[in-house]
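[Primary structure, fold]
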Amino acid sequence: MSIFLNERSKVIVQGITGAEATKHTTKMLAAGTDIVGGVNARKAGQQVSIGGRDLTVFGTVEHAIKETGADVSIIFVPPRFARDAVLEAIDAEIGLAVVITEGIPVHDAAYFWAHACAKGTESATPGAPRTPRTRIIGPNCPGIISPGKSNAGIIPADIAGPGRIGLVSKSGTLTYQMMYELRDIGFSSAIGIGGDPIIGTTHIDALEAFQADPDTDAIVMIGEIGGDAEERAADFIKANVTKPVVGYVAGFTAPEGKTMGHAGAIVSGSAGTAAAKQEALEAAGVKVGKTPSETAALMRTLLAALADSTAA
């Protein structure tokens, strides 16, 4: 199995005629992703030839879903148009919207996330937030890959093959590095959630999905300075995750009070520091590496111990 994306996923690309979308659509098709069309209101009805495939450009996401049965949209739309593109995907009730676009204003991300929640299903718990019908990954993220099955985003498909490790990361670059470090073992799914202040899918969402996935044996979680997402994830792990988890937190040398890299990576006083996040994760039983390579080595040790216990 895998989480959120599999070989049956039918994918459309919003903004498919743009240069970046064309480049990455070619790569996704080569990886075996079932891309069934694209969306660009100004070029509706046209055909584009990408990666040896002739793909129809639809005027709306709703029309694309109706004609193709698409359940995933990858959004390569410039920042000033991205809010409307995501809203369109939500209104069409696509199952998964992967928002690759970087530089989306925070108020736009807040708007489309609130809209997704408002259109969601009622929670079984009174007073709890609605569950969005459209899962959003990102914005400002590399997307999600289930190696050997499907690739929705810009993660290089040849870094690692299928396996039994689940990976969730704030950082795109560290997603790639961790996949490369553990390429001989492989991944059930790897998801880059993005590091902006407001994102759709969180560490906790991915941890919950990996915990429920019978084909994921262990989890790597990569965080970074800023906010309290990693501390909240640590609380969730302690209460709900029985599979082994290793972690890495980027930003131990970052200066206080300065935004570093991702827009969400800002530290104030002791809040959001790498040390505080490491402490919270270790208190939840997560082994935290000082470097990505050390984190990968911790995963290898955990998997070896897991194999020994299974054999016994």
